[in-house]
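Office hours follow-up: a student asked to see two folded examples consecutively, so here they are.
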Amino acid sequence: MEQSYTANDSISRAIRTRISYRTALEQYRTLSRFARISWVTWIVAIVTIAIWCFSAYQYALATGAHSLSGVLMSILANAINVQNNDTLANVLIADGAKYNPAMLQGQYWRFVTPIFLHANLLHVGLNMLNFVVLGVFIERLVGHLRFLLIYTVTGVVSIIASFVFSPQEVSVGASGAIFGLVGAYSIFVLVHRRAFNRGGIPVLLWLLFIIGLNLSIGLFVQNVDNFAHLGGLLSGFLLGWWFTPLYRTNPNGTLVDVHSLSRCWPLALLTITGTILLAIIALHFGGG
């Protein structure tokens, strides 16, 4: 009897997991056509690209370009290689890059602004391509506000990690926040692993491979801030555990997302408060 109960309970959990997974994937289809659009993803991508255009223009002027053709030539010449480029570093610092001396002097907005800054065409192109591909899907999965929360908090935590562990580096880029999205989605898959074939092991191994591959790039390529990537990834794991959709059946038989912000808003406020406290602690005990 005990073995029968265990087997039945396992089957019941698998069924609940499949229902939760399928509901989470299809929930956005119940929204109006306007609400289905991944507005946060597209707005962030457009704003980020616009900010890069402004920084690229400033850099072109700083290198002596004064015509449209000169600006375009400057952008193309700097499209890939940014090593030992003090002029670009100065432009990015002026625009809000992660720069520890300025942050220690009270420019705390630099915990946020680096997420929207990029060094060159290749940098912004690859990051925004990855962001849009991931963002459209994950925003549909978690909803607009939860997506904004996960992206912003993991982005800020990635800058905090860079501030503490790479104090000498001038850092910019959305890759830490993108790693945060990957981390959050990985937890969603882990929680719903029973909805996949073979207990989700092949999918989880594939995600681990992608994460490991991207982190390993920082070991061989200069000017890649792996501490920011790790900070974003680890905070993404945590926020994924707290906020990615998990549907359960109410006593009246309706499905409810127990991780929705309407139910977890105190945890969301605690998350934002904790991120601010983490930045304060970093300012007082690290970054020198």
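And the second, which I mentioned at the end of office hours:
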Amino acid sequence: MKKLIALFAASTVASTAAVAGIAVSGTASVSYDDNGSSASATSYDADLLYTGTSGGTTVTVGHDVNSVAGAFTSAVLTSTIGMLTITADMLDESTAATTSTGGGQVYDSTDTSVTVSLDVPVGDMTIGLDNSGNVILGGTFSGVTVSHTVGDTTITTASAAIAGVDMSVTNKAGATTWTLGTTVSGVDLTLTSGQKITAAFGLAGNTMTVTRVPAVTASAATTGNSVGSGAGGYGTYTTSSVDSYSTVAIARDLTSGATLTATYSTKDDSLTLKAAVTF
């Protein structure tokens, strides 16, 4: 009997230790949109993130609990051994668009991957290699953070904070995009190469954000295939033209722990009310 009690106690301790290495966080929200002149609609969203840690190894699993099938959205394992870090993305998320408009991808592509990174004592540089054969170089030099990927598509990103301005420039296959961010008289301003402008006012817990969204030019579909080979890759659907519009979002933290956000959009003269909580 004593042996049985001791065994039960040991099992209880082992279970408690295992649970202690797992953290659960998540978000939940409900939104009501009057949709302007169209019929109003209510939407819901609830997601959980499970994080398990053992020594230098971490596993994170994302779970979309409000979907019909309770779909998992991510599963990533990261293990660090000295200067070597191995990251495995184990969930093949769907990358195909759910609608035939908006320029989304036609065919589903495989996005599982294994990346091996090595921290070497050369100016805080990181050298990585993924299972697609891409070589990834990254590091911070004289205050400028640089990431350079050499593979089928060469991508270089550089970011820095200079004289109060946060700058980020990305060149992908010859096409360059950039983002500038700064604060003027307490207003956080962001400008992108796509002509999107965002201004955020107020203090934490009580803010107003004004955003100008640039116009979208219509584009035709591109032809692709299921393996993504060729100039068209996996293919894209058509993109409809959209005029530029603006949004104003007012967010207020409530004593209940939730955040209430009211967003007005000139795109369809709609008002959206959203209550959300993060835990």
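Two things to take away from it. The CA atoms of residues 76 and 232 lie 29 Å apart. The radius of gyration is 24 Å.
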